[in-house]
Amino acid sequence: MIGTELMLKSSGMACRVYMEWKFERLLQKAEAHGFTEEELRNSDHRFALFMRVGRAFEICSEKEVVDYITDAMIGGIQSGDADKRPDLAQMAISALNGVTGTELNLILLMREYGLWGTSDEEILDESGFEGFQTAIHLELGLNDASASAILNGLTHTGLVTPQASGLGNTANIQGNRLTHLARALFQYVDYARRLTS
Question: Checking CA distances to 131, which of 27, 50, 64, 106 falls within 20 to 30 Å?
Answer without folding.
Answer: 64
